[in-house]
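ok trying this again, last paste got cut off
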Amino acid sequence: MMWRFFESGLFEIFFSITFLIIMGMIVFGLISSVRQWSKNNSSPRLTVEAQAVAKRLSVSHHAGTDHTAGHSSTSYYVTFQVESGDRMELRVSGREYGLLAEGDRGRLTFQGTRYLSFVRSV
């Protein structure tokens, strides 16, 4: 039964469609990343009074193969609320994540969706 699947050419069609879908997803992801990078670069650098209102992290697990070990990666995010009441979630480094506490107030500097710095008010 399986042999007929290979002989009929359906396997080649299925493989080609699967390959095109995967390649399309990769290309789409790359184009989206370049667009966001370009948009951030063309955005003005802004410094505003803000408060850190929430923190979260996202852990991704990447499975290994028989010969390699898997690994994990962690992304860190902080939600800031500006004076107008608007909120924005920005990705920060692990160091910045550790230094920031919910409730901290200060001057947030960002460019588009790119976090640049946060200086606490004393």
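PB: full thing came through this time. The two ends are 75 Å apart (CA to CA).
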